[in-house]
Specification:
Blueprint lengths: L7 E6 L4 H12 L4 E8 L4 H11 L6 E3 L2 H11 L4 E2 L3 H9 L8 E4 L6 H9 L4 E4 L2 H7 L1 H6 L5 E3 L2 H11 L23 H4 L4 H4 L9 H8 L1
Parallel strand pairs: 1-2, 1-5, 2-3, 3-4, 5-6, 6-7
Helix pairs in contact: 2-3, 4-5, 5-6
Organism: Corynebacterium urealyticum
Keywords: Isomerase, Isoprene biosynthesis, Manganese, Metal-binding, NADP, Oxidoreductase
Protein name: 1-deoxy-D-xylulose-5-phosphate reductoisomerase
């Protein structure tokens, strides 16, 4: 007799960004393992957000969006009412908070320090926080660490996930120094004179990673 397992319930904050899209690809490829119960987005890609909600089967009440225009668009197609406003990602987490258990996951893939409030709200639930929003730790620092239970905060973006895996491979006292490397972006090694005429298109062309336009531009500057 085959063993059955409960699905991992997932909330994805920043579902239309690069990491959010990749996370949903994993969910869609493994429907027997994962169930998405809420998504949030800024609202710059209304058609993609609607497509995601429809494919997952979410009602509008489980879609959080910062843009009123995008919220109107999604509501017109799904019926019901989205969670709206600049704090909508945090509000979605708080709306679902009492339902979340230690086996559930909140993926914070928001961009920038706007992700801090959602991070703190997520750590106030029983769910694990898969943190791709590095700015939360930069801006929140000890505040975030103090809010997290042991094992609740899981790094998922490339650099800090690699650091965590290194630290878990042995004992902490075996590690004296961690050295982070980087690709250097598209302009590594360029002189000041070479950089003067570069275009936004060149800056958005990362030689290694597909990170979404905003992250790629930030990486290049």
């Amino acid at each position: 007799m085959a063993m059955t397992f409960d699905k991992t319930r997932v909330v994805i904050l920043g579902s239309t960004g690069s990491i959010g899209v990749q996370a949903l690809e994993v969910v869609f490829d493994n429907p027997e393992q994962f169930e998405v119960i809420g998504i949030s987005a800024h609202g710059s890609k209304p058609e993609l957000l609607l497509e995601q909600a429809q494919k997952i089967g979410l009602p509008a009440e489980r879609v959080a969006v910062a843009s009123d225009r995008t919220a109107d668009f999604v509501e017109a197609q799904l019926g019901g009412h989205c969670i709206r406003g600049q704090d909508s990602a945090r509000d979605l987490v708080e709306e679902l908070g009492d339902q979340l258990e230690s086996t559930d996951v909140i993926l914070n893939a928001l961009v920038g320090s706007q992700g801090l409030e959602a991070t703190l709200s997520s750590l106030g639930t029983q769910a694990r926080l898969a943190l791709a929003n590095k700015e939360s730790l930069v801006a929140g620092g000890q505040l975030v660490l103090d809010a997290a239970d042991e094992g609740q905060l899981v790094p998922v973006d490339s650099e800090h996930s690699a650091m965590a895996q290194c630290l878990r491979s042995g004992r902490r006292d075996e590690v004296a120094t961690l050295v982070l490397t980087a690709s250097g972006g598209p302009f590594r090694g360029w002189t000041r004179e070479q950089l003067e005429p570069v275009s936004p298109l060149q800056a958005a062309s990362h030689p290694t990673w597909s990170m979404g336009q905003m992250n790629t531009l930030n990486s290049a500057t």
